[in-house]
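Researcher: Quick test of sequence recovery. Tokens follow.
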């Protein structure tokens, strides 16, 4: 089964299995990953599933949409590679993906 590692702001890693086709937010909340809240249920309306993609995974994960940008850019911790995990659909190509979490979610 493919895996993704969520790394908390303090460096604590959480490696979990994911199912292809689900969002990374669903994978994280289904596995109780600390720091991923997903308050809006995946509608890109709250920003509580903010993740930061490392440079080496951008070509696989793609870039954020305009709608996603409008929400994530309100975060003071927004970075060029920030994404909303609810908008990142898991694929087998993402097996081994490592993402960082900001210190605070919005």
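Model:
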């Amino acid at each position: 089964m493919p895996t993704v590692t969520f790394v908390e702001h303090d460096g604590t890693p959480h490696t979990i299995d994911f199912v292809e086709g689900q969002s990374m937010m669903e994978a994280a909340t289904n596995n109780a990953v600390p720091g991923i809240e997903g308050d809006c249920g995946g509608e890109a309306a709250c920003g509580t599933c903010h993740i930061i993609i490392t440079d080496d995974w951008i070509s696989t994960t793609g870039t954020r949409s305009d709608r996603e940008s409008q929400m994530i850019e309100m975060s003071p911790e927004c970075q060029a590679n920030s994404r909303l995990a609810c908008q990142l659909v898991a694929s087998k190509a993402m097996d081994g993906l490592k993402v960082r979490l900001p210190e605070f979610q919005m």
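Residues 3-100 form a domain with the Ubiquitin-like (UB roll) fold (CATH 3.10.20.30).
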